[in-house]
Amino acid sequence: MRLAYINFLIEDGNYRAGVLLTDQSTKPVEFRITTGLNIDQLQEILYGEALKEVLYKEKFTIQLLNSLQEDYDVVLVKDRSLLSIRKEIEKPVVHIQKYEYFMPLNRQSHKIINLQEKYDPLYITISSQDENRLVSISQQLNEIYKNFNIMEPFDRIEKAIKYLSEKGQ
Q1: How many CB atoms lie within 10 A of CB 83?
Q2: How far is CA 112 from each of CA 21, 23, 118, 129, 140, rounded to the nearest angstrom?
Q3: Bridge pairing between strands 74-77 and 3-11
Q4: Does the pLDDT of residue 34 top 80, yes or no?
């Protein structure tokens, strides 16, 4: 199973995003990053709550996924609003986060655990159009989670964006 991780970094009004495609052992297969996009305070005021949605979905995520040369099976995101990109791509989108005891389970959500308790339990949610694939995706992610922290690649993207920004790239 190949996983396409999407993450974002905002520093001093500069917005950037990256996609890290990994194999099932979370080893990198491909990496893409956007150029920095500076948003001034007036734009932040005028866009308000819609700014992240416009930037993250329309400007960054779809472009990054379309730029990948290698194929992937699932897109993993930390921002729940990105589940809606499923309408524009052919692959399942999975929102993944740390599990909290009082989180409601529903037909589109599932808990993932690491049996050795090396990593915290996780909670995944998928879009309604992939509801019939939830069990299969959950089982595959749970299998990967036995040996590899499937949340850690999000940190790698942030670090890579910072590194490239410091290098002026």
Answers
A1: 21
A2: 21, 19, 13, 20, 10
A3: parallel
A4: yes
Give the angle 106-153-38 at the CA atoms, nearest 5°: 95
Give per-residue pLDDT as tens, 83-110. 889 988 989 999 998 887 776 667 788 7
Measured distance CA(26)–CA(167) in Å, rounded: 25
Contacts 24+ apart (CB under 8 A), 41-47: 41/13, 44/13
Q: How far apart are CA 53 and CA 12, in angstroms?
A: 19
Q: What would the mean pLDDT of 39-64 be, rounded to a whole number?
A: 81
| CA gap 64, 44 in Å, rounded | 23
CA 145/CA 62 separation, integer angstroms: 26
Cα-trace Rg, the chain: 16
List all residues 6 or more positions away from 113 whose beta carbon is below 8 Å from its beta carbon.
121, 122, 142, 145
The rounded percent of the chain whose pLDDT value lies above 70 is: 98
Q: How confident is the model at residue 32 (pLDDT cuts 50, 70, 90)?
A: very high
Using CA atoms, how far apart are residues 53 and 103, in angstroms rounded to an integer?
24
DSSP 56: I
